[in-house]
Amino acid sequence: MQLRSIKLENFRNYTDLALDFSPGVNVFLGQNAQGKTNLLEAIYVLALTRSHRTHLDRDLINWEAKTARISGQVERRTGKLPLELSLTSKGKKARMNHLDQPKLARYIGQMNVILFAPEDLELVKGAPQNRRQFLDREFSQMSPKYLYTANQYKAILKQRNQYLKQLNTLKAQDQVFLDVLTDQLIEYGSDLIQQRLNLLEQLDAAAVPVHQEITQGQEHLTLKYVSQLDIHELDSLEQIQKSLHERFQKLRSREIQLGTTLLGPQRDDIQFLVNEHDVAVFGSQGQQRTTALAVKLAEIELMYMQTGEYPILLLDDVLSELDSARQTQLLAAMQDRVQTFLTTPSLNDIASQLIKTPKIFQVSAGKITEIKTDDRDD
């Protein structure tokens, strides 16, 4: 999978930009606040219809405009696919192959991207919410079923929480409706948990050999799903449903008292174990970064296994955060397989000798110009 070209209109600090890309490595040079990250964000938004930096579409629109537009030409095994996303303060509209897409869920997954930014190095020791978002973001690209289940679950969870608040304030008395919402939440929640378990097991299988290679066989990585249920004792969807039902019955009065849902995949987590110890608690910073890198590299392989195509890799100023050994591992993994977009203040910050024939761009104040090989100041 490759993004061959992109056009931006009034996106962030780009009022009018059109670029053609290399199928290999594309390097964007520039100092901070010039627009390097904005470009990678545009690619991310084109793929997933939302930003990794803000929840407000208005933030993505140039302050002098009311509408922003991102369009790109994606090349897949099945052929070329034009994608387009229009953004306003009131919402967004997606087009695929020049046809409007009434449902964004049908659009997502047509271009798969993996973003690796400095904050991703905090995946291991950061907040549980970040790891849940990581699961939902990556697995939704790989599986339309996962995306559908996650969206349905979130919608019912929101409705149930609202109704619990009404029960709590005596604005509603009908607990039969709460039973209906709980049954729906259990149906989609158990399915979501099972899908997470299956995909996390595959991600674990892909991450283990990568991690062992980085650590030269000295460490063993395990990815463990953490739930309020005794999840690893439950062998089927039916058992997960039964366990959720029993727990919800016990929590009913407390949920009404607090006005919120206390159980479900929205409260689950991932634990990263290195040599059977929680690396977030007992690991060094180097071990934590190695774990995050191994998981990101494993994502590339898992996405290929799930979709039949390698994703597009976005590296936002992350190489300068890695030592030379980890840089080498990352660059070797992407070479000749994954189209890569890489931002950096300087080529001196990366092991550029490992990148074969990159296409290099200079970014300055919202303007991007290609630097020809002969023009490079080595």
UniProtKB/TrEMBL annotation:
Binding-site residues for ATP, renumbered to this chain: 30-37
Location of the protein in the cell: Cytoplasm
InterPro entries cross-referenced by the UniProt entry: DNA-binding_RecF, DNA-binding_RecF_CS, P-loop_NTPase, RecF/RecN/SMC_N, RecF_2
Main location class: cytoplasm
Keywords noted in UniProt: ATP-binding, Cytoplasm, DNA damage, DNA repair, DNA replication, DNA-binding, Nucleotide-binding, SOS response
Xref: SUPFAM superfamilies: P-loop containing nucleoside triphosphate hydrolases
Annotated GO biological process: DNA replication; DNA synthesis involved in DNA repair; double-strand break repair; SOS response
One term of GO molecular function: ATP binding
UniProt domain RecF/RecN/SMC N-terminal: residue ranges: 3-344
GO CC terms in record: cytoplasm
Family membership: Belongs to the RecF family.
Function of the molecule: The RecF protein is involved in DNA metabolism; it is required for DNA replication and normal SOS inducibility. RecF binds preferentially to single-stranded, linear DNA. It also seems to bind ATP.
NCBIfam families, per database record: recf
Name of the protein in question: DNA replication and repair protein RecF
